[in-house]
Amino acid sequence: GGPGGPGMMAPGGFFGGHMDHMLDLVNATDSQRSQIDAIFKAARQDLAGQRDTGRKLHEQMAALYTATNVDAAAIENVRAQLSAQHEVASKRMSQASIDAARVLTPEQRTKIAEVMKKRQARMASRQAG
After folding, report:
1. 52 backbone dihedrals φ, ψ, rounded to 5°
2. Alpha-carbon gap, residue 48 to 40, rounded angstroms
3. pTM for this model (two decimals)
4. Residue 37: left (phi > 0), alpha (psi -120 to 50), or beta?
5. Helix 30-66 crosses helix 72-103 at what angle (to 10 degrees)?
6. DSSP per position, the chain
7. Residues ≥6 apart with Cβ < 8 Å to 53
8. Could you read off the pLDDT tens digit of each residue along the chain, which spans 129 residues?
9. How far apart are CA 111 and CA 45, in angstroms?
10. Closest CA relative to residue 88, chosen from 54, 59, 114
């Protein structure tokens, strides 16, 4: 799961985290599916090294918070590193989403946008109630 996981997108991506389902809804061709799969596979490969780095940063953060003396400067340093790492991943997945959207026809993109708008409305009504 998470950004770049199987069939997933970064939050807010054009496919909304349900790429296979969206491609089914718009009757994507096998060629379109192959191209889009390759785009996201490349993005996942580009970001693969970040997983270990992110895990280590989270471990550092936990160690800093459980130390005898809480070092605010060190915590801020690790937070900034985590934030920068998230920004890189977000940009990469956003570019993958743009590249994948370009594989689709305008009609297919419109259909996905309509589905996403309905999904957002349902989520908003759930949160309100």
Report:
1. -65, -40
2. 12
3. 0.74
4. alpha
5. 180
6. --TTSTT---TT-TTTT-HHHHHHHTT--HHHHHHHHHHHHHHHHHHHHHHHHHHHHHHHHHHHHHSSS--HHHHHHHHHHHHHHHHHHHHHHHHHHHHHHHHS-HHHHHHHHHHHHHHHHHHHHHHH-
7. 85
8. 344 433 334 444 566 567 888 899 999 999 999 999 999 999 999 999 888 899 999 999 999 999 999 999 999 999 999 999 999 999 999 999 999 999 999 999 999 989 889 988 888 888 887
9. 29
10. 54
Position 3, amino acid:
P
For 20, the token pair is 């296979």
Count of positions (residues) in the chain: 129
